[in-house]
Amino acid sequence: MSLRLGQIGLRRWVWMVVCSAAALAALRQLMQPLWNDPVITLRIGETYEYMEAHSTAPFSVWDRGSKTVSGGIPKTDARLRFVDPQYGFETPLARFFTVTFVNNLTVSIRMSPQIEPLLIEDAMKVVTDLQSQWCAKGWKPMGTQGDPTITDTPEWRAYVRQGVLSGRSFWQAGDKYQAMLILGRFRDSRHLDQERYLITLAVAKPWIPFDEIEDRRIESHHFLPPLPEKGAISCPSQPS
Q: 102, 205 in Cβ contact below 8 A?
């Protein structure tokens, strides 16, 4: 009798373990977006509702429904997933992250793709990874005579380490988007004994007519900024 009771107890224990495992698996599946990095998914020209439906990060918006300008920020650190069939890209987690809407449509993004000021090695990794994504997706560097693309070289590190001027590069995706990427030294009160850097990323529809100003810009500068000669990225042509 005791043996039979023991077998029944064992079966019950095994059944409880199986049920618990199944329940945990189901719960994990339901909560997967919460366990992964929160993401803000958006597309220039799409509605606020599109962003809300495709994002996993909670979002705080002000003046929603305004017929003019409104904006908002994620309520938590979040990645940007920039959606486009050809030109899409993603960023690391960001703490400073703002989205601007006009007539409820997304028109621009401004963010720092980091959650704290970074050491130069980490900052360069973020910058070069973003530029590599753009290059692979068909974005083109613009205005490189005055603002060459940023590359992790000794020349570039020495340039931004001065803390006077920032590295800056512009990128364009056909006639659809422009991106401005800035890397500059930042005084972090929590790490006064370290060199820390801040990255700024802005994305919107093209706002600088590079094709019109390129030649005039070169002529108007007697002395171009002392940017490193090395570092310009030449992206391969994309198949048509």
A: no
